[in-house]
Structure formats: structure tokens, C-alpha cells
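Complex record, two chains
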Amino acid sequence: MYNPDHTKPGSLKSRFTTRFLRALSKIHAHKPISSSSPTEMFQRYQRIKAAADKSMAYSVRSRRTWSRAMLWKLRTRSCGRRSVKTSTIIKSQQAIMKKTRHEKQNENTTTTATTGEDGVGFCVEEDELREIVPGGEAMDLCNLLDETAHYIKCLTTQVQVMKKIADFYSL
Amino acid sequence: MELNAGTAGTGSHETASERKEVAALESLQFTDEIRRLMLAPATDNASSFTALLELPAPQAVQLIHSPDSVKLTAVHAPTPNVDDFKGSFHFPFDSGLIERAARFSLFAGDGNINVNNKSNSLEPTSYNSTANLQKPVKSEPAETESYQALVSDPTVENRSIKRKDREKVKGSTKKNKTAAKDSSDDAEKLPYVHVRARRGQATDSHSLAERARREKINARMKLLQELVPGCSKISGTALVLDEIINHVQSLQRQVEFLSMRLAAVNPRIDVNLDSIFTADSGSLMNSNFSGMVMPMMWPEVQLNGNRQQYPQQSQFGAFQQPVWGREEVCNNYMTPENSLLSYDSSGNSASLHSNQLKMEL
């Protein structure tokens, strides 16, 4: 019952917990909570959220597209105004990808019109999924579903750990 | 020539396959040979053609159309009667049978060639009984004479394709599952790979690739359905995707929510992280902790009322205002707690809390 961090020592849960607690302590040490203004609270919230995402992405390393994309996003966000140019470039790239994907979908739907199946893409939901999953713009549907599955797994771990920590602290 | 082959008498199946067209001949030596050959057990599929000789024609035709080696080997059970054979021998003129015979004779062995050539001389004499035999039999030696596996295979393949088309027309949709197996079996025998398409579907490479891709996508969707709770009941890919999207969104919102909570909560003590993951002595600290909990609880009691209306999900819009208000209240109460805690032995409490956290996690 007193297992430290689940069954496996090197599991995703333990890695994430370590990193996140470290980041949390750093944030709390950096600024004590004496100041209770909403803006500062908000800033702190943002920092903690970024720390949570970052620690999760680091726990996954670069093995997954979504973790790479998330790390990249966090890095560019922290860089600030300098990255405006790169972000516009990225956005244009993404727009191009979307266009080519739509073209491909149109082609495919015309060629496979004979079959009574769903066709290649699910259009609306697929685009939504791409927006939600980090790094989902540049993937085809097959890989996107893979990434989504792994992302869901990691998100649930994250939520579990954070819930436990929050419960613990607010006791 | 057949007599020579017969007296050579190895019982090889090549000679037997050549004998099929002259089985109608009534010579005693011949019937003895046939009897011997038929009684000999067939070793592999190529020799199963001898098994066909035992059957009456319709059954043989049936066997051709459903190529299961099991059926053919089971045929050996009944003892053949050559007399019946002689009288009622009625050669099935199925092109499928012919091409299969050609295939077997081809694959039978090298010694076939001479036998084939010699058999040609006997053609005009042996086919007086049934004129119908001439056409299929002549085509068969013509094929075997060339004896180039590559050349004959296209013809065989064409015939096999025709056979498949006929089977498709018959509407045997249940063969979809066995189609893959058949194609793999055929691939072993012939250098061409036959991929059997399902009924009503195109067979060009594009649609095949498309189909493979779609199957991959469907497999992954099934996995996702298992991951997302409550998704397995839903049928239809669009709805499942909607559920998945909702689930991911709710998880992301939960993370935001919890990070808000954590931002507001003050870690009452400096948690020594190194001690968290070292050896646990949680049971020791537990008793102390229960003693400590009581003084901490009384400021919490007043907060409990606020806390209960703390929803886990939803209503995030209206949520903002009360949250910040509550947290401010909470903070005011935190400081006396801090003082309380620092009252106790801080070192003890630090390791205590870290152990507690470790336990919970």
C-alpha cells in the first residue's frame, strides 16, 4: 500500500510526478503566496499549467509527435516576441498542409465513389481532432489516431497525479 | 508407349496422369496398372489428380471447383473398382480440370517430356470411343510439350482467373474469408499472386491500398473506443470521433482546473523532494499525522461549505469569479495554519507530509 509511485519505478507516472513536483516547488519558492491579487494568481496558474504540460512532454521525451510539438510550442511561447516571425511561418505551413489535405480528400472521394464506405476522411471531426492534439496538423489520419490514443493516456495520468497533489495540499 | 511406361512400373504419378485419356482402352495390363496406381497413396497435392480418377465425373468436377486438399485425400478411402471405371468412365470436360491436369503434369517432374511426346503418337488410335475427348486432350499435350513454366503459367492463370470470375458470378460471398487463404495457397504454386477481391469491389492497386489503409484506421478507432469510457456502445465513426474529441477536451480542461487549484494552494511547508522517493516509513508517521490533523481541521471546517460547491467539470465560464474569491478566503486561513504547523517540529512534519504524498501517489 505504501508503494512509491505505482508499480514500475520508471513508469510514466513516476517520471511525471518527479518532474512536476520539482517544478512546483521551484515556482512556489520563487514567489511566496503572500500576494493574493488575481493577476498574480493568474500568472502563477499559467506557470503551473505550463510546468505541468512541460513535465509531461519531457516525461515522454521526443518519442511522440505530440510531445515534440508541445515542447516546441512551450519553448517558442516562452521566447516571447522574437518568435512572432517563426509562428507566422509555422501557421502558413499548417495552412498549406490543410489545403493539400483537403485536395487529397476531394480526389480520394471522387475515385472511391463506388464503394459505399465512409471514404478516406471524416472532415469536420478530423480537423477538430487535429486542432486539439498538439502537432496534429501535419499528420495523416492513421498516425493522428495513434497520437490521440497516447495523448489520452498521458492526459489521464497527468490528471490523476495533479488531483492527488491538489488533494494533498488542500487537506 | 504406355506399355513401356507401365512396365517401367515405378507407379509414378506422371505416367498415371498421362494415362487418363487412354483409360478407356480395354487392356488387361492397363487395368492392372491403373488399379495399382489408384491404390497407391497420394503423397502430395500434385499427385492428387490420381485421386480424381477414382471418382465419377460430377464429383471430380466438384472437387476442382473447391480445391481443398482435405477432400482429395479423403477420397482415397473407397477402394476403386476398375470395371466400374471402365464402363462408366465419362471424362469431365471442364476447362478447369484440364488446366489443373496441365498444372499437375507440369509440376510432376522432368521425366514427363518424353512420355508426353510418345503419347502423341497414340492419340489418333485411342480416341475413337469418344470424339469429345480429342479437344481437351490435344490441348493438354500441347501445353506440356512446351514445358516452360513461365509460358504455360499465363494460360493457366487466365483459366484460373476465368474460374474465379465464374465463382464470383455464382455469388459465393462466403468465400471472402477463404479468399485470402486461397490466394496464399495459389501463391505457393504459381509465381503470380492472386488477390481475390470481394464481390462488387475494384481490384486495382489503388483501391487495394485504400482498403488496407481503411482497415488500419478502423483498427485504431477500435483501440480508441476502448480507451475512451462509454465509447464502445456508440456505433458510427463520426459519433465515436465526437466522443473522443469531447473526452480530450474535458481532460485538458481538467488539467487547467487542477493547475488553478494548485496555483492557489500554498504548500504549507517546504517539501523536501528528495525525501519523498526514498525509503518509506509511512506507518511511523501516520500516527503522528492523525494527531496533527485535528488542529488543522478547524479552520477548514468553515471552508468546507465553499468547497463542496467545487465542481470537477463544467461551468467554467461562471466559474472564474467564485474561484478567486474562495481562494482569497482560503489564503487568509492558510497563514494561521502555517503558524500552527511551524509550531510543531517542522522537520518531522516535512518528512511526514512527504511520506503521505508518497503513499497517496
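Note: Chain B touches chain A through 63 residues (CB under 8 Å).
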